[in-house]
């Protein structure tokens, strides 16, 4: 099932801290769009005016907060928020029978298991990498309900999830949890640094420059080694240099956390896992594909545990691993993971999704390399 909606793109993607800070500022514009009857199209509603806390707390705006969907790009990174009235009728379950993915601004509702006649369609409102405390807080704060005793599946899943997610030294993972806030704050400032401008669909650096030779990165190396003032660079190179520096800061912070906790926190600890993800993303955007693969491989088993069955987030993660292996010439391993990603994503995304089309091309490329070798 596909639905159009009213949506607004954030100036950049992937920063949940930024989205949490900005979501309420867009509610007035979205409300106006609803009142004008624009529910059949997806419109850019422009820059928001400042709104007061009293305005935010009005029941109509609370309804928008409660019923909006976070729009994700192909890599499941948050890039905006949208209103999809019919889909807002779906109830939450910690063991849902459906999932939601986006193809551009279009919301797709996909069944992820067999659904019996008369069975209610449900989705999970939450990030699966949340502890029970974090889940209860978000359900209470954003959706205004609590998980009750009657919700046996939810309670069982929450308790089991905590035992798996919060493994390792408690003092250490709390320190990592705090460090993640610093990483999010760094990422929240990237909208003004991106050489591609404030577009959440901007191509990662490794795609702009080419994953093999990365000529632009290499061209900037002398400036970074000599520590020349940024005034020696033109405006475009200056923006690019700043963005690269931000990614390097994130990677350095992630590496420090991972290296210091390698023997004290397992990769299945949810906060350690999030740091591994950040390190992988930083390496990809810096063109360090071999290092990115080493971090990505460490996420595979935790993702299998925390995203059971057919889950779009796991499908995308496995696809990333397969693509990295393909770039490194590890063709049999890449084929195995790309096929696994296809098996998951043909359920969660459907064969008509643009990401599936990309995945098929990768499978064909991998198969050709295997035959040639």
UniProtKB/TrEMBL annotation:
Domain SET: 49-126
Pfam families listed in its UniProt record: SET (PF00856)
Classification of source organism: Eukaryota, Metazoa, Chordata, Craniata, Vertebrata
PROSITE patterns: SET (PS50280)
InterPro entries the UniProt entry points to: H3K4_H4K5_MeTrfase, SET_dom, SET_dom_sf, TPR-like_helical_dom_sf
Protein's name in the database: Histone-lysine N-methyltransferase SMYD3
Domain of life: Eukaryota
